[in-house]
Amino acid sequence: MITIAIDGHSSCGKSTMAKDLAREIGYIYIDSGAMYRCCALFALEHGLIAADGTIDTAALEALMPEIQVSFRLNAETGRPDTYLNGENVEQRIRTMEVSSHVSPIAALPFVRAAMTAQQQAMGREGGIVMDGRDIGTAVFPDAELKIFVTASDEIRAQRRYDELVAKGQPADFQEVLDNLRERDRIDSTREVAPLRQAPDALVLDNSHLTIEEQKQWLLEQYFKLTH
Ligand code: CDP
Known about the structure:
By secondary structure, the chain is α/β, with parallel strands linked by helices. 48% of the residues lie in helices and 17% in strands. It is built from nine helices and eight strands. It has a five-stranded parallel β-sheet with strand order 2-6-1-7-8. It has a three-stranded antiparallel β-sheet with strand order 3-4-5, with helices on one face. A hairpin with a 2-residue loop joins strand 4 and strand 5. Helix 2 packs across helix 4, helix 2 (32-45) crosses helix 5 and helix 4 runs parallel beside helix 8. It is globular, with a radius of gyration of 17 Å. The relative contact order is 0.22.
């Protein structure tokens, strides 16, 4: 069993393709972005983010050992739900409020150290598909299959906007677009483990691919490597 790392820009459909592939080949899927979203939710709920966005980093660092993220299959959706300290937070981590605070939280070196350690522990045995920003570069630099996914800003914003609307969450297209551009900027320019294409990653621009087409493309890459 191999390790599959899927990285790329925000809202480009990485998690959809990663989940589909994992289900198809019987691997475990881990959404590393959900883990950073849990850290942001935790900081918000503990009052560690001021109205102007300032983070109480000393308090958050002291509380880091209390952040335990796990994933459990939801029998109804057939997909894993995210749990923060035993509580299902799958809906709460996907709000615009969490989206607007997650990237500064994910740029903190002590947050990355803690989440990277949890991710490496989850993937120790292989047989895993993990998606994020730094999986092929920092978490599993030796992953056998690395994919870097991207799509145009507007298409990504439209997909995320549709997703929020489908969930009945308040959404404004321009706000979604601004948020993903801002997250991409922070994610690409931070000092620790920035979003970057690994030199040995295969690049997929899925701007004009359907979910089914990207799924087929990814399966082909997997079979090329393993058969
Ligand atoms: O769903 P979307 O692609 O918009 O984002 P996500 O995968 O849920 O990740 C949320 C945020 O977590 C990103 O914008 C990054 O700031 C951070 N992240 C990270 O720093 N490293 C990862 N491996 C995954 C996510």
